[in-house]
Amino acid sequence: MKHKLELQEAEVEAKSVIEKFNIASLPICPFSIAKEHGIVTEPKDSDKPGVSGFFIKIGDVFGIKYATHIKNEGFIHFTVAHELGHYFLPGHFEYLFRGRDGIHESRSGFISEDFYEKQADYFAKSLLMPEELFLAALREAGEGFVAVKSLATKAL
Amino acid sequence: MSAIFSERLRIARDLKGFSQTDLAQKTNLKPSAISHFENNRRSPSFNNLKQLADALGVTVDYLLGRAEEPTTVNLELELLFRNFKEMSGPDREFLAKMAKELAEKSKEQKEKKS
Hints:
The structure holds 2 protein chains of 2 kinds.
Chain A: H1 4-20, H2 30-36, E1 40-43, E2 51-58, E3 61-66, H3 73-88, H4 92-96, E4 103-107, H5 115-128, H6 131-140, H7 144-155
Parallel strand pairs in A: 1-3
Antiparallel strand pairs in A: 2-3, 2-4
Helix pairs in contact in A: 1-5, 3-5, 6-7
Chain B: H1 3-16, H2 20-27, H3 31-38, H4 46-56, H5 60-63, H6 89-113
Helix pairs in contact in B: 2-3
């Protein structure tokens, strides 16, 4: 796998955030984590599709703006967790400010080849579905679609 | 990696009279992490930058070399809109509103540090 070490790094950073919050069970709320770090989160007041999330830095203040045109809590949580990845992952400031100062945007439905984006996606996955907690839930979830529904309920 | 960050971090720590261990304790980072940052062997995260800036009484922008004075922030909002054309009209409007709010908050934080 390309960038295997960097993806592991994303998992380690997500785990570190979870441990610092003393989170011992699902669900994990990215909004609470953002709030604890003074990161402002705001929904886009628009139903139009397009940019799914922004990570913004102005001075020493950081913000996340997320789209709500897809009415799915999981999608919204993943968007916010992805943007948190840009805040918690080492070296992302160099990427975010490369050539375009102060703002980063992500577009839904587009699988980015950029490794920073993949690393932020991996961070989001690891933050919202940490292996240890998710596997424990998986073992209790049963089988088939009932299991999928059960896990979705537990993770949100 | 950012050479200016390494240099600024070391200068700010020296001015504060902190050892690497002192700074590590104040930021909940490992002393080895501080050493890696100062020797340009590891890049920080924004979270690390915020922790370091708060402990040293400087701004993130100073540590990143985006502001010349230790307590100065970079509020040049026009640079936020380089991708303006890719956004929808409402996106631009709401982003501008949020940018304004964050700039106000950043000014308040700066006043506390000054």
